[in-house]
Amino acid sequence: MPIEWNEKEEVFHLYNGKVSYFIQIVHGKYPAHLYWGRQVKTRQPSSILAFKGRAFSPTTEPEDPKFSLDTLPQEYPAYGNGDFRSPAYQLLSEDGSTITEFVYNSHEIFQGKRPLKGLPAAYVEDDSEADTLIITLVDSLLGVGLNLHYTIYSDLDVITRSASFENLGNREVELHKCLSMSVDFHQADWDWLHLHGTWSRERHIERQPLHHGLQTISSTRGASSHQHNPFVALLSKNANEESGDVYGVSLVYSGNFQAAIEVDPFQTTRLSIGINPFDFTWLLKPGETFQTPEAIMVYSSDGLGGMSRTYHKLLRTRVCRGVYRDKTRPILINNWEATYFDFNEKKLKEIAEAGNELGIELFVLDDGWFGHRDNDKSSLGDWVVYQKKLPNGLAGLADYIGKLGMKFGLWVEPEMVSPDSELYRRHPDWCLHVPGRRRTASRNQLVLDLSRKEVCNYLIDTLSKVFKSAAISYVKWDMNRNMTEIGSAALPPERQRETAHRYMLGLYRILEKLTERFPAILFESCSGGGGRFDPGMLYYMPQTWTSDDTDAVERLKIQYGTSLIYPAITMGAHVSDVPNHQVGRTTPLLMRCHVAMAANLGFELNIDKLSEGDKTLVAAQIQQYHQIKDLVCFGDQFRLLSPFAGMDTAWMYVSPKQERAVVFYYKTLAVPNPPFFRLKLRGLKREAMYKVNNGDKVFYGDELMQIGLTLPLIKKDYSSFLYRIEKVN
C-alpha cells in the first residue's frame, strides 16, 4: 500500500511514485511533519528531525530538554502548552480554559476514500485510486477525540486533508478554531502566491517574498468571495511556469475561510487553511462530531504549470460530478446584456431565432422572468412566472425554443429575498438578521437564512416545481450579495456564531437534493460572476460564470489567473457587445470570440442586431469552436505568455496523447515598427512532426517548442490569432 507505518520509528510514509509525505509520532504523542515533496527513499526517517534547546521555548518532556513544541514542526498544532505560533485549532471547555493536549491514540490505514458527511470533497470511483490514513488523537481530560484525515491519490501529486472533532465525554466543549490542515516546512526562503480582486476583476495573481511574522488572506463575507480565492501557494525562488518547487493548498469550501503563512525566527514556515475563525464558534455536545472542510494539497516540481495541470485533472474528474463532467458544454446565448429587465416573449424568441441560425445550441433566459420583476427592486423569492412578460409561461417559451432545435436554460437567485416580495411579507424572519438591528440591503435584497431547515425545504420544493414546469436543461444559479447581520432567528444565543457555517451546510444540502432530482440539468454557479468560484461549488455545479466582466482585454487576466487552479471546462465565457458594458472598451469581434473560446463559449448580446458580416464571422467561429472544444475542455493547458507581464498573452491546450493542440495568442496594444516575435510552444512530443493550421510546412515538436512559431507583424490594437496544431503520421 502507498501508506507505510514504520512502527519502530513511529513514522508514516505516504507516497505514490511521485510524491512523499512523512509524519512522525514524536515521544509517542505528537504528530510531527518531516517532509512533503518529490518522492524519496530513506532508511532512517526519524533522523530528519533535529532538536536544540532554545531560550524561552518551554519543554513538555523533562527528560528531553532539547525538545519543545515551540520548535517542533507539527501536523496540527495547538496554542497554550509551549507552541507560540498560530494554532490549527482552539477549544473552549466548560471551565473557561482553552488549554488542550491531544496526543496520539491510534491510527487506521485503508484503501479508498470516504465521503465527508454534509460537505463536498474530492472522491474516488474505485478504492484502488487512493489510500487513506486517519490518525486519532485524544485529550483525556476533555474527553474529546481528534481525527486527522489524509488521503493520497495513486496517479496524482495530490494529498487531501481534513480534521474531525468528536465529543467522547459528558461535557460540552466549544470549537473556536478548527482549520482543515496545517504543515510546517523546514525552510522560509519562499515566495507566496495568491489570487486577489473584486467584482468584475477577479483572481488577479500576486506573488511576494515571505517575511517574518504572519501573512494571511481571508473572507468574512459569507462566501469564498471576489476578493480572495480559497487558495495559496508557496514557491521556490526560481519557480516559474515550467520548473521549480510549488506547494499549493486549496479549500473545498464556499464560505468564510482563512489561509495563513507564518515564518518564525528559526526559518520554519507554517502554512494553513480552513474555516475563518473570525466570528465563528461551534458548540459540540456529548456524542456530536464536527467535520472540517477538505483541503487539497498539490506538490509540483514542474513549476506553476505542473501544479495547475494536477489541479485541473483532479477538479475535473474527481471533484466535479454528474453527466456533464465528461461532456463538452453547449454553446449558449444569454439575453441579459441584450435586454436586461426589458423584454417580452417576442424579443426572447427573436434572440433565440438569430442564435439558432448561427449555430448556437442553448438559449438562456436571465433575470426578470418571475414575480413582478421589472427591475432589481422586487420579487426575489417569488418563483412564479411573470405572465405579463411570458403569457405562455416557461413551458410555452421552452417548447418554442425546443422546436428550433435548441435547448432552454433559466436564471435563478434562490438564496436571496426582496423586501418587496410575497415571500418576505409572509416570512420576514426567514432572512439573516439580528433582532432590533437594521437589515442592511444590497442590490435591494436580503439573504435567506439557509441555516433553517424550513427555508431549505421551501427552496427545494419551490425550485423543483420550477424545474419540472418546462424542458429546462441548464440553470444559472446566481448569488448577488454578501452577508451582513449574520444571525438566525432559529438558533439559541450560544449557537449564533454557527450561522455562517450552518448556512453553507444548508446550501450544500439544497444543491445535493436538486442535483440528485435533476441529473440532466447542467448547473452553472454564479455570484455576481466569480464571487464563489471554488471547489466546493464545483462539486455540485461543474462550471462557474467566471466574471460579470465580459471585456476581452480584462478577461485575459481573469481567465489566466483562474487557470492557476481551475480547468477551462469549469469557466463560463461570453462574447458581449461593444462598447463593453463594464469598461466601455471597443474590441474586435474576433478577439472577443477567441477569448471566450478558451473556455465554455457563450454569447450575451443583441445577436439579432449584428451586421451580416459579423454574423458570418460568429458562425465561422462557432464551427471552429466545435473542432477544438474537446481540446479546451479536456486537454492539458500550458500558459505561454502572461497578461500580467506585458501586452501579449498566450496559452495552449494539448490532447492527452499529444496528437493535437490549439494555441491562442492575443495582443492588446500594438507598437510602432515591431520586431518579429517567436512564440515557443509546450507540451508536444519532441520527435513528432506537426502541421500548423493545415499548412504545407511540417515542424518537429522540439522545433515548435525551442524555436517557436513566427508570428505576423501586428499593426492594430486588440489582435488575436488561433493556431491548430496537428500531428503528421
What's this, in brief?
By secondary structure, the protein is of the alpha+beta class. It is built from 12 helices and 38 strands. Helices cover 19% and strands 32% of the residues.
Give the SSE layout.
Layout: E1 3-6, E2 11-15, E3 19-26, E4 30-38, E5 89-92, E6 103-111, E7 130-139, E8 144-153, E9 158-167, E10 173-185, E11 190-198, E12 201-209, E13 213-218, E14 231-236, E15 246-252, E16 257-263, E17 269-275, E18 282-284, E19 289-291, E20 294-300, H1 303-318, E21 332-334, H2 336-339, H3 345-358, E22 362-365, H4 393-403, E23 407-412, E24 416-417, H5 422-426, E25 446-447, H6 453-468, E26 472-477, H7 499-517, E27 522-525, H8 535-538, E28 543-545, H9 552-562, E29 571-576, H10 589-596, E30 600-604, H11 612-634, E31 636-641, E32 648-654, E33 660-667, E34 677-679, E35 689-692, E36 698-700, H12 701-706, E37 709-711, E38 719-728
Parallel strand pairs: 21-22, 21-30, 22-23, 23-26, 26-27, 27-28, 28-29, 29-30
Antiparallel strand pairs: 1-2, 2-3, 3-4, 5-10, 6-7, 7-8, 8-9, 9-19, 9-20, 10-17, 10-18, 11-12, 11-14, 13-16, 14-15, 15-20, 16-17, 24-25, 31-32, 32-33, 33-38, 34-37, 35-36, 35-38
Helix pairs in contact: 6-7, 9-10, 10-11
